[in-house]
Design brief:
By secondary structure, this protein is an alpha+beta fold. 33% of the residues lie in helices and 11% in strands. The longest helix is centred in the first third of the chain and has 36 residues, at 17-52. 21% of the residues are buried.
Length: 541
Protein backbone atom coordinates (compact mmCIF):
# COMPACT_ATOMS: atom_id res chain seq x y z
CA UNK A 1 0.00 0.00 0.00
CA UNK A 2 1.34 3.50 -0.96
CA UNK A 3 0.75 6.78 0.77
CA UNK A 4 1.56 10.47 -0.05
CA UNK A 5 4.41 12.27 1.79
CA UNK A 6 3.04 15.44 3.49
CA UNK A 7 6.35 17.28 2.80
CA UNK A 8 7.29 16.46 -0.79
CA UNK A 9 3.88 15.00 -1.93
CA UNK A 10 5.48 11.85 -3.29
CA UNK A 11 3.73 8.48 -2.95
CA UNK A 12 5.82 5.95 -1.03
CA UNK A 13 5.16 2.58 0.62
CA UNK A 14 3.20 2.88 3.83
CA UNK A 15 5.92 1.14 5.79
CA UNK A 16 8.57 3.66 4.62
CA UNK A 17 6.37 6.75 4.91
CA UNK A 18 7.53 7.81 8.35
CA UNK A 19 11.22 7.51 7.52
CA UNK A 20 10.73 9.35 4.19
CA UNK A 21 8.79 12.17 5.87
CA UNK A 22 11.47 12.69 8.50
CA UNK A 23 14.15 12.80 5.82
CA UNK A 24 12.17 15.40 3.87
CA UNK A 25 11.72 17.54 7.00
CA UNK A 26 15.41 17.43 7.73
CA UNK A 27 16.30 18.52 4.20
CA UNK A 28 13.73 21.37 4.33
CA UNK A 29 15.04 22.71 7.68
CA UNK A 30 18.63 22.71 6.46
CA UNK A 31 17.63 24.56 3.22
CA UNK A 32 15.70 27.17 5.22
CA UNK A 33 18.64 27.86 7.50
CA UNK A 34 20.96 28.23 4.51
CA UNK A 35 18.52 30.69 2.83
CA UNK A 36 18.32 32.86 5.96
CA UNK A 37 22.11 33.00 6.24
CA UNK A 38 22.40 34.04 2.57
CA UNK A 39 19.82 36.86 2.96
CA UNK A 40 21.61 38.17 6.05
CA UNK A 41 24.92 38.15 4.19
CA UNK A 42 23.44 40.00 1.23
CA UNK A 43 21.92 42.63 3.54
CA UNK A 44 25.19 43.05 5.37
CA UNK A 45 27.16 43.55 2.18
CA UNK A 46 24.64 46.05 0.84
CA UNK A 47 24.76 48.03 4.07
CA UNK A 48 28.57 48.09 4.04
CA UNK A 49 28.56 49.22 0.43
CA UNK A 50 26.09 52.03 1.23
CA UNK A 51 28.16 53.16 4.21
CA UNK A 52 31.24 53.22 1.98
CA UNK A 53 29.44 55.61 -0.50
CA UNK A 54 28.42 58.16 2.19
CA UNK A 55 30.56 61.26 2.83
CA UNK A 56 30.22 63.78 5.65
CA UNK A 57 29.25 67.40 4.72
CA UNK A 58 31.18 70.01 6.71
CA UNK A 59 28.41 72.60 6.23
CA UNK A 60 25.36 70.69 7.50
CA UNK A 61 27.18 67.84 9.38
CA UNK A 62 25.13 65.07 7.76
CA UNK A 63 26.41 62.01 5.92
CA UNK A 64 25.44 62.48 2.30
CA UNK A 65 25.29 59.98 -0.52
CA UNK A 66 28.15 60.27 -2.98
CA UNK A 67 25.79 61.18 -5.86
CA UNK A 68 24.52 64.21 -3.86
CA UNK A 69 28.05 65.26 -2.96
CA UNK A 70 30.28 67.72 -4.90
CA UNK A 71 34.09 67.84 -4.67
CA UNK A 72 35.96 70.92 -6.01
CA UNK A 73 38.69 70.07 -8.48
CA UNK A 74 40.93 72.96 -7.47
CA UNK A 75 41.14 72.32 -3.72
CA UNK A 76 39.58 68.80 -3.33
CA UNK A 77 37.18 70.02 -0.62
CA UNK A 78 33.70 68.54 -0.84
CA UNK A 79 30.24 69.42 0.43
CA UNK A 80 26.70 68.32 -0.25
CA UNK A 81 25.22 69.96 -3.34
CA UNK A 82 22.23 71.39 -1.49
CA UNK A 83 24.43 73.27 0.99
CA UNK A 84 26.74 74.51 -1.77
CA UNK A 85 23.85 75.82 -3.85
CA UNK A 86 22.45 77.80 -0.90
CA UNK A 87 25.95 79.12 -0.12
CA UNK A 88 26.58 80.28 -3.72
CA UNK A 89 23.14 81.88 -4.09
CA UNK A 90 23.75 84.00 -0.97
CA UNK A 91 27.08 85.17 -2.39
CA UNK A 92 25.45 86.09 -5.73
CA UNK A 93 22.74 88.02 -3.90
CA UNK A 94 25.52 89.90 -2.07
CA UNK A 95 27.02 90.73 -5.54
CA UNK A 96 30.33 88.98 -4.84
CA UNK A 97 32.09 88.38 -8.13
CA UNK A 98 34.73 85.99 -6.69
CA UNK A 99 33.24 83.18 -4.54
CA UNK A 100 35.77 81.25 -2.38
CA UNK A 101 35.53 77.66 -1.16
CA UNK A 102 33.29 77.40 1.98
CA UNK A 103 36.10 75.68 3.92
CA UNK A 104 37.41 78.16 6.51
CA UNK A 105 41.04 77.22 5.90
CA UNK A 106 40.76 77.45 2.09
CA UNK A 107 40.90 80.65 0.01
CA UNK A 108 40.64 79.02 -3.42
CA UNK A 109 38.00 80.57 -5.69
CA UNK A 110 35.31 78.27 -7.00
CA UNK A 111 35.95 77.56 -10.68
CA UNK A 112 33.45 78.47 -13.40
CA UNK A 113 32.97 74.78 -14.25
CA UNK A 114 31.93 74.00 -10.66
CA UNK A 115 29.50 76.93 -10.68
CA UNK A 116 27.94 75.72 -13.94
CA UNK A 117 27.48 72.22 -12.44
CA UNK A 118 25.82 73.54 -9.27
CA UNK A 119 23.61 76.33 -10.70
CA UNK A 120 20.80 76.40 -13.23
CA UNK A 121 21.56 78.14 -16.57
CA UNK A 122 19.47 81.17 -15.49
CA UNK A 123 21.29 81.41 -12.14
CA UNK A 124 24.69 81.14 -13.82
CA UNK A 125 23.77 83.90 -16.29
CA UNK A 126 22.74 86.11 -13.36
CA UNK A 127 26.07 85.37 -11.68
CA UNK A 128 27.99 86.33 -14.83
CA UNK A 129 26.15 89.64 -15.30
CA UNK A 130 26.46 90.46 -11.58
CA UNK A 131 30.17 89.70 -11.63
CA UNK A 132 30.69 91.81 -14.73
CA UNK A 133 28.88 94.77 -13.20
CA UNK A 134 30.96 94.45 -10.03
CA UNK A 135 34.19 94.29 -12.02
CA UNK A 136 33.19 97.40 -14.00
CA UNK A 137 32.26 99.21 -10.78
CA UNK A 138 35.59 98.50 -9.13
CA UNK A 139 37.72 98.99 -12.24
CA UNK A 140 39.14 102.36 -13.22
CA UNK A 141 40.04 101.20 -16.73
CA UNK A 142 36.89 99.47 -17.99
CA UNK A 143 33.86 101.45 -19.21
CA UNK A 144 30.50 100.23 -20.49
CA UNK A 145 28.45 102.06 -23.13
CA UNK A 146 25.24 103.36 -21.47
CA UNK A 147 23.17 102.60 -24.59
CA UNK A 148 20.99 99.66 -23.50
CA UNK A 149 20.89 98.30 -27.04
CA UNK A 150 24.70 98.25 -27.22
CA UNK A 151 26.40 97.75 -23.77
CA UNK A 152 29.81 97.54 -25.45
CA UNK A 153 32.76 97.43 -23.00
CA UNK A 154 35.80 99.64 -23.61
CA UNK A 155 39.15 100.08 -21.93
CA UNK A 156 40.28 103.50 -20.79
CA UNK A 157 43.95 103.62 -21.75
CA UNK A 158 44.31 107.23 -20.67
CA UNK A 159 45.02 110.29 -22.81
CA UNK A 160 47.28 113.29 -22.86
CA UNK A 161 45.54 116.51 -21.86
CA UNK A 162 44.84 118.62 -24.92
CA UNK A 163 44.21 122.38 -24.73
CA UNK A 164 40.86 123.64 -25.94
CA UNK A 165 40.89 125.64 -29.15
CA UNK A 166 39.87 129.28 -29.04
CA UNK A 167 36.52 128.44 -30.65
CA UNK A 168 35.69 125.38 -28.53
CA UNK A 169 32.86 126.02 -26.13
CA UNK A 170 30.80 123.88 -23.79
CA UNK A 171 27.10 123.04 -24.04
CA UNK A 172 26.44 126.26 -22.11
CA UNK A 173 28.17 128.34 -24.81
CA UNK A 174 31.07 129.32 -22.53
CA UNK A 175 34.77 128.64 -23.29
CA UNK A 176 36.13 125.49 -21.66
CA UNK A 177 37.86 125.93 -18.32
CA UNK A 178 41.04 124.02 -17.35
CA UNK A 179 38.96 121.81 -15.05
CA UNK A 180 36.46 121.07 -17.84
CA UNK A 181 39.28 120.22 -20.26
CA UNK A 182 40.80 117.77 -17.76
CA UNK A 183 37.41 116.13 -17.18
CA UNK A 184 36.81 115.90 -20.93
CA UNK A 185 40.14 114.15 -21.54
CA UNK A 186 39.55 111.63 -18.74
CA UNK A 187 35.85 110.81 -19.01
CA UNK A 188 34.50 111.62 -22.47
CA UNK A 189 34.01 108.47 -24.54
CA UNK A 190 32.51 107.63 -27.91
CA UNK A 191 31.40 104.02 -28.34
CA UNK A 192 32.87 102.57 -31.52
CA UNK A 193 29.99 100.13 -31.84
CA UNK A 194 27.02 102.54 -31.72
CA UNK A 195 28.77 105.97 -31.85
CA UNK A 196 27.12 107.08 -28.58
CA UNK A 197 29.06 109.87 -26.86
CA UNK A 198 28.84 109.72 -23.07
CA UNK A 199 30.47 110.52 -19.74
CA UNK A 200 32.14 107.47 -18.24
CA UNK A 201 31.79 108.87 -14.72
CA UNK A 202 28.05 109.67 -14.57
CA UNK A 203 26.84 107.96 -17.80
CA UNK A 204 25.31 111.22 -19.08
CA UNK A 205 24.42 111.02 -22.79
CA UNK A 206 25.60 113.03 -24.65
CA UNK A 207 28.72 114.09 -22.78
CA UNK A 208 28.29 117.34 -20.83
CA UNK A 209 31.07 119.31 -22.53
CA UNK A 210 32.17 122.28 -20.44
CA UNK A 211 31.07 120.80 -17.09
CA UNK A 212 32.34 118.35 -14.54
CA UNK A 213 29.71 115.85 -13.34
CA UNK A 214 29.00 117.89 -10.19
CA UNK A 215 28.77 121.13 -12.17
CA UNK A 216 26.44 119.51 -14.71
CA UNK A 217 24.17 118.24 -11.94
CA UNK A 218 23.96 121.74 -10.47
CA UNK A 219 23.39 123.20 -13.94
CA UNK A 220 20.53 120.75 -14.53
CA UNK A 221 18.78 121.76 -11.32
CA UNK A 222 19.03 125.49 -12.07
CA UNK A 223 16.53 127.52 -14.12
CA UNK A 224 17.34 128.05 -17.80
CA UNK A 225 16.23 130.27 -20.65
CA UNK A 226 13.48 128.47 -22.55
CA UNK A 227 15.05 129.40 -25.90
CA UNK A 228 18.86 129.36 -25.68
CA UNK A 229 19.20 127.17 -22.55
CA UNK A 230 21.55 129.57 -20.73
CA UNK A 231 21.40 129.41 -16.95
CA UNK A 232 19.28 132.22 -15.53
CA UNK A 233 20.41 134.43 -12.71
CA UNK A 234 18.69 133.99 -9.36
CA UNK A 235 17.19 137.47 -9.47
CA UNK A 236 15.57 136.87 -12.87
CA UNK A 237 11.88 136.06 -12.50
CA UNK A 238 11.22 135.51 -16.21
CA UNK A 239 12.03 132.22 -17.95
CA UNK A 240 13.88 134.12 -20.71
CA UNK A 241 17.40 135.54 -20.54
CA UNK A 242 18.42 139.11 -21.46
CA UNK A 243 19.84 138.20 -24.87
CA UNK A 244 18.15 140.44 -27.52
CA UNK A 245 17.43 137.45 -29.76
CA UNK A 246 15.66 135.59 -26.94
CA UNK A 247 13.73 138.72 -25.96
CA UNK A 248 12.53 139.04 -29.56
CA UNK A 249 11.43 135.39 -29.62
CA UNK A 250 9.62 135.87 -26.33
CA UNK A 251 7.54 138.65 -27.88
CA UNK A 252 6.14 136.19 -30.46
CA UNK A 253 5.86 133.03 -28.36
CA UNK A 254 2.79 131.60 -26.65
CA UNK A 255 2.77 132.13 -22.87
CA UNK A 256 0.50 129.19 -22.02
CA UNK A 257 1.46 126.04 -20.11
CA UNK A 258 0.19 122.79 -21.60
CA UNK A 259 -1.76 120.22 -19.50
CA UNK A 260 1.42 118.10 -19.32
CA UNK A 261 3.21 120.97 -17.48
CA UNK A 262 5.52 121.97 -20.36
CA UNK A 263 5.70 125.30 -22.19
CA UNK A 264 3.72 125.70 -25.41
CA UNK A 265 6.25 126.25 -28.22
CA UNK A 266 3.70 127.90 -30.52
CA UNK A 267 3.12 131.52 -31.36
CA UNK A 268 1.06 134.04 -29.43
CA UNK A 269 -2.74 134.34 -29.85
CA UNK A 270 -3.22 130.97 -31.55
CA UNK A 271 -6.69 129.50 -30.99
CA UNK A 272 -5.26 125.97 -30.63
CA UNK A 273 -1.90 125.45 -28.95
CA UNK A 274 0.91 123.55 -30.58
CA UNK A 275 1.24 119.90 -29.39
CA UNK A 276 3.91 119.38 -26.74
CA UNK A 277 7.35 118.83 -28.29
CA UNK A 278 8.93 116.99 -25.33
CA UNK A 279 9.95 113.49 -26.42
CA UNK A 280 7.91 111.64 -23.77
CA UNK A 281 4.76 113.63 -24.59
CA UNK A 282 5.23 113.13 -28.36
CA UNK A 283 5.47 109.38 -27.82
CA UNK A 284 2.40 109.35 -25.55
CA UNK A 285 0.35 111.43 -28.00
CA UNK A 286 1.34 109.10 -30.86
CA UNK A 287 0.04 106.09 -28.89
CA UNK A 288 -3.23 107.84 -28.05
CA UNK A 289 -3.86 109.01 -31.63
CA UNK A 290 -3.13 105.82 -33.57
CA UNK A 291 -6.69 105.65 -34.87
CA UNK A 292 -6.78 109.37 -35.72
CA UNK A 293 -5.06 111.39 -38.44
CA UNK A 294 -1.31 110.74 -38.70
CA UNK A 295 0.51 113.21 -36.45
CA UNK A 296 4.05 114.55 -36.79
CA UNK A 297 6.63 112.73 -34.66
CA UNK A 298 8.90 115.79 -34.45
CA UNK A 299 10.27 116.66 -31.00
CA UNK A 300 11.84 119.81 -29.57
CA UNK A 301 15.30 118.28 -30.12
CA UNK A 302 14.77 118.05 -33.91
CA UNK A 303 16.23 120.84 -36.03
CA UNK A 304 13.99 123.12 -38.04
CA UNK A 305 14.08 121.76 -41.61
CA UNK A 306 14.20 125.27 -43.07
CA UNK A 307 17.03 126.99 -41.19
CA UNK A 308 18.90 123.87 -39.95
CA UNK A 309 20.52 126.14 -37.34
CA UNK A 310 18.42 125.66 -34.18
CA UNK A 311 16.21 122.96 -32.72
CA UNK A 312 12.46 123.50 -32.71
CA UNK A 313 12.19 124.46 -29.05
CA UNK A 314 14.67 127.33 -29.57
CA UNK A 315 12.06 129.58 -31.25
CA UNK A 316 8.26 129.90 -31.60
CA UNK A 317 6.90 127.32 -34.04
CA UNK A 318 3.82 126.66 -36.16
CA UNK A 319 2.29 123.33 -37.17
CA UNK A 320 1.20 123.55 -40.80
CA UNK A 321 -1.86 121.99 -42.36
CA UNK A 322 0.23 118.98 -43.41
CA UNK A 323 1.20 118.36 -39.76
CA UNK A 324 4.89 119.30 -40.00
CA UNK A 325 6.40 121.81 -37.58
CA UNK A 326 8.82 124.66 -38.36
CA UNK A 327 10.02 127.90 -36.80
CA UNK A 328 7.42 130.57 -37.46
CA UNK A 329 9.99 133.17 -38.56
CA UNK A 330 11.76 130.63 -40.79
CA UNK A 331 8.53 129.98 -42.71
CA UNK A 332 7.87 133.72 -43.04
CA UNK A 333 11.44 134.34 -44.25
CA UNK A 334 11.15 131.53 -46.80
CA UNK A 335 7.92 133.03 -48.19
CA UNK A 336 9.38 136.55 -48.33
CA UNK A 337 12.53 135.35 -50.09
CA UNK A 338 10.41 133.73 -52.84
CA UNK A 339 12.07 131.70 -55.62
CA UNK A 340 15.88 131.47 -55.86
CA UNK A 341 16.51 132.12 -59.58
CA UNK A 342 15.31 134.28 -62.42
CA UNK A 343 12.50 131.97 -63.53
CA UNK A 344 9.37 131.96 -61.38
CA UNK A 345 8.99 128.78 -59.33
CA UNK A 346 6.62 128.09 -56.46
CA UNK A 347 8.40 125.57 -54.22
CA UNK A 348 8.77 128.34 -51.65
CA UNK A 349 5.02 128.08 -51.01
CA UNK A 350 5.25 124.37 -50.14
CA UNK A 351 6.35 122.35 -47.11
CA UNK A 352 10.00 121.32 -47.63
CA UNK A 353 9.27 117.85 -46.20
CA UNK A 354 6.11 116.75 -48.02
CA UNK A 355 5.66 119.54 -50.66
CA UNK A 356 2.10 120.24 -49.51
CA UNK A 357 1.16 123.94 -49.88
CA UNK A 358 1.75 125.99 -46.73
CA UNK A 359 -1.41 126.49 -44.68
CA UNK A 360 -1.74 128.34 -41.37
CA UNK A 361 -3.95 131.26 -40.24
CA UNK A 362 -0.94 133.31 -39.11
CA UNK A 363 0.64 132.97 -42.57
CA UNK A 364 -2.43 133.89 -44.66
CA UNK A 365 -1.31 137.50 -45.23
CA UNK A 366 2.23 136.45 -46.17
CA UNK A 367 0.99 133.74 -48.55
CA UNK A 368 -1.53 135.89 -50.43
CA UNK A 369 0.91 137.61 -52.89
CA UNK A 370 2.50 134.28 -53.82
CA UNK A 371 -0.88 132.58 -54.21
CA UNK A 372 -2.10 135.46 -56.42
CA UNK A 373 1.02 135.17 -58.60
CA UNK A 374 0.55 131.38 -58.77
CA UNK A 375 -3.03 131.83 -60.01
CA UNK A 376 -1.90 134.36 -62.64
CA UNK A 377 0.91 132.13 -63.97
CA UNK A 378 -1.43 129.14 -63.97
CA UNK A 379 -4.02 131.04 -66.03
CA UNK A 380 -1.39 132.20 -68.53
CA UNK A 381 0.09 128.71 -68.86
CA UNK A 382 -3.34 127.09 -69.32
CA UNK A 383 -4.32 129.67 -71.94
CA UNK A 384 -1.13 128.94 -73.91
CA UNK A 385 -1.68 125.19 -73.55
CA UNK A 386 -5.21 125.50 -74.95
CA UNK A 387 -4.05 127.71 -77.82
CA UNK A 388 -1.51 125.00 -78.68
CA UNK A 389 -4.26 122.33 -78.39
CA UNK A 390 -2.19 120.37 -75.86
CA UNK A 391 -4.74 120.15 -73.06
CA UNK A 392 -5.54 116.56 -74.12
CA UNK A 393 -2.03 115.40 -75.03
CA UNK A 394 -0.67 112.06 -73.80
CA UNK A 395 1.03 113.67 -70.80
CA UNK A 396 -2.41 114.74 -69.55
CA UNK A 397 -4.88 112.20 -70.97
CA UNK A 398 -2.92 108.94 -70.73
CA UNK A 399 -3.59 106.82 -67.65
CA UNK A 400 -0.48 106.63 -65.45
CA UNK A 401 1.14 109.75 -66.92
CA UNK A 402 2.80 112.21 -64.54
CA UNK A 403 0.16 114.89 -65.16
CA UNK A 404 -2.87 112.62 -65.72
CA UNK A 405 -6.01 114.81 -65.53
CA UNK A 406 -3.84 117.78 -64.44
CA UNK A 407 -3.48 120.13 -67.44
CA UNK A 408 -2.60 123.06 -65.17
CA UNK A 409 0.28 121.12 -63.62
CA UNK A 410 1.52 120.09 -67.06
CA UNK A 411 1.31 123.67 -68.38
CA UNK A 412 3.24 124.99 -65.36
CA UNK A 413 5.86 122.28 -65.89
CA UNK A 414 6.22 122.86 -69.63
CA UNK A 415 6.32 126.67 -69.86
CA UNK A 416 8.67 129.14 -68.20
CA UNK A 417 7.54 132.49 -66.82
CA UNK A 418 9.61 135.40 -65.53
CA UNK A 419 8.67 138.49 -63.47
CA UNK A 420 8.83 141.81 -65.32
CA UNK A 421 10.91 144.32 -63.37
CA UNK A 422 8.71 147.27 -64.36
CA UNK A 423 5.10 146.08 -64.36
CA UNK A 424 5.74 143.15 -61.94
CA UNK A 425 3.56 140.86 -64.06
CA UNK A 426 4.70 137.40 -65.18
CA UNK A 427 5.58 137.01 -68.86
CA UNK A 428 6.25 134.00 -71.07
CA UNK A 429 9.89 133.03 -71.48
CA UNK A 430 9.68 129.97 -73.72
CA UNK A 431 9.44 126.29 -72.95
CA UNK A 432 11.54 124.86 -70.15
CA UNK A 433 13.17 122.36 -72.49
CA UNK A 434 14.79 125.30 -74.30
CA UNK A 435 16.37 126.86 -71.22
CA UNK A 436 19.48 126.01 -69.26
CA UNK A 437 19.84 125.97 -65.50
CA UNK A 438 17.86 128.60 -63.62
CA UNK A 439 20.29 131.45 -62.88
CA UNK A 440 20.66 132.33 -59.20
CA UNK A 441 22.81 135.44 -59.73
CA UNK A 442 21.19 137.88 -62.15
CA UNK A 443 20.22 141.51 -62.59
CA UNK A 444 16.46 141.76 -62.07
CA UNK A 445 16.39 145.05 -64.04
CA UNK A 446 17.14 143.08 -67.21
CA UNK A 447 13.95 141.03 -66.82
CA UNK A 448 11.42 143.02 -68.88
CA UNK A 449 8.31 141.90 -70.68
CA UNK A 450 7.84 142.98 -74.30
CA UNK A 451 5.37 145.65 -73.29
CA UNK A 452 7.88 147.33 -70.96
CA UNK A 453 11.08 146.98 -72.98
CA UNK A 454 10.93 150.55 -74.43
CA UNK A 455 12.33 149.20 -77.70
CA UNK A 456 11.83 151.44 -80.74
CA UNK A 457 10.37 148.69 -82.90
CA UNK A 458 7.90 147.33 -80.38
CA UNK A 459 4.29 146.94 -81.46
CA UNK A 460 0.98 146.66 -79.73
CA UNK A 461 -1.60 143.99 -80.55
CA UNK A 462 -4.95 145.56 -81.31
CA UNK A 463 -6.72 142.59 -79.71
CA UNK A 464 -4.56 141.53 -76.78
CA UNK A 465 -2.51 144.65 -76.09
CA UNK A 466 1.11 144.13 -75.03
CA UNK A 467 0.57 141.20 -72.65
CA UNK A 468 1.36 138.50 -75.23
CA UNK A 469 3.94 140.44 -77.29
CA UNK A 470 7.12 138.37 -77.76
CA UNK A 471 10.58 139.11 -79.12
CA UNK A 472 12.92 136.62 -80.70
CA UNK A 473 16.35 136.19 -79.15
CA UNK A 474 18.79 138.23 -81.26
CA UNK A 475 21.24 135.30 -81.55
CA UNK A 476 18.97 132.22 -82.00
CA UNK A 477 15.37 131.26 -82.67
CA UNK A 478 14.21 130.93 -79.05
CA UNK A 479 11.74 133.33 -77.44
CA UNK A 480 13.44 136.21 -75.62
CA UNK A 481 13.50 136.25 -71.83
CA UNK A 482 16.08 138.95 -71.04
CA UNK A 483 16.30 142.54 -72.32
CA UNK A 484 19.76 143.95 -71.59
CA UNK A 485 21.61 147.20 -72.23
CA UNK A 486 18.35 148.75 -73.49
CA UNK A 487 19.12 147.28 -76.95
CA UNK A 488 19.40 143.49 -76.89
CA UNK A 489 16.96 140.60 -76.35
CA UNK A 490 18.38 137.29 -75.07
CA UNK A 491 16.89 133.86 -74.51
CA UNK A 492 17.92 132.22 -71.25
CA UNK A 493 20.66 130.08 -72.82
CA UNK A 494 22.25 132.91 -74.83
CA UNK A 495 22.10 135.22 -71.81
CA UNK A 496 24.40 132.83 -69.91
CA UNK A 497 27.07 133.24 -72.60
CA UNK A 498 26.32 136.85 -73.49
CA UNK A 499 29.98 137.83 -73.08
CA UNK A 500 31.07 135.70 -76.05
CA UNK A 501 27.99 135.42 -78.24
CA UNK A 502 27.76 139.20 -78.77
CA UNK A 503 31.17 139.19 -80.48
CA UNK A 504 30.39 136.12 -82.61
CA UNK A 505 30.07 136.93 -86.35
CA UNK A 506 26.54 136.53 -87.72
CA UNK A 507 27.49 133.71 -90.12
CA UNK A 508 28.77 131.66 -87.13
CA UNK A 509 25.60 132.05 -85.07
CA UNK A 510 23.18 129.07 -84.81
CA UNK A 511 21.26 128.37 -88.01
CA UNK A 512 17.54 129.08 -88.11
CA UNK A 513 15.40 126.13 -87.10
CA UNK A 514 12.00 127.84 -86.70
CA UNK A 515 9.35 128.28 -89.40
CA UNK A 516 9.00 132.03 -88.81
CA UNK A 517 10.35 134.38 -91.46
CA UNK A 518 12.83 136.72 -89.81
CA UNK A 519 16.15 138.47 -90.55
CA UNK A 520 19.34 136.45 -90.05
CA UNK A 521 20.25 135.71 -86.44
CA UNK A 522 22.17 138.62 -85.00
CA UNK A 523 19.35 141.09 -85.68
CA UNK A 524 16.53 142.15 -83.36
CA UNK A 525 13.12 140.84 -84.44
CA UNK A 526 9.64 141.23 -82.99
CA UNK A 527 7.63 138.00 -83.13
CA UNK A 528 4.40 139.85 -82.38
CA UNK A 529 1.43 138.64 -80.32
CA UNK A 530 1.86 134.99 -79.43
CA UNK A 531 -1.88 134.34 -79.06
CA UNK A 532 -2.67 135.80 -82.47
CA UNK A 533 0.15 133.73 -83.96
CA UNK A 534 -1.19 130.53 -82.41
CA UNK A 535 -4.75 131.30 -83.55
CA UNK A 536 -3.57 131.79 -87.15
CA UNK A 537 -1.63 128.52 -87.02
CA UNK A 538 -4.67 126.66 -85.68
CA UNK A 539 -6.92 128.20 -88.35
CA UNK A 540 -4.42 127.11 -91.06
CA UNK A 541 -4.52 123.53 -89.74
Amino acid sequence: EERECPVCARRVAAAALEAHTNACLDISERASREHEDEAQLRAFLLNEERRASMLPCALCGADVDLCAFHIFQACSHGFCKKCLQEFIRKKIAAKECSIACPDASCHQSIAAKDLKDLLTPEEYQTYESTSLEEVLRKSNNLVRCPNKECSNIMENIGSTATPASAKETGSNGEPLSAEAIKHRDQHRFRCRACQTEFCAQCNATPYHLGFTCQQFESYGKARHCRFCGDQLKQQQRSDVCDDPDCVSKNADCCRKMLPCGHHCCGIRNERVCLPCLEADCVKLNAQQQKSQKQQSQQTGDDFCNICWAEDLRSAPCVVLGCGHIFHYKCVKASIEKRWPGARITFNYLNCPLCHTPFSHPALAKDLKPGQTLLAAVKDLALARLREMHLENCDDVAKLGAQFYHDPAGYAMHRFSYFPCFKCKKPYFGGERVCEGSNEVEFDARELLCSGCSDFAAQERCSIHGTEYIEWKCRFCCNVSVWFCFGTTHFCDDCHKKSGTIQTTPKHLLPACWCKVKHPPNGTEFLLGCSLCRLQKANAFR
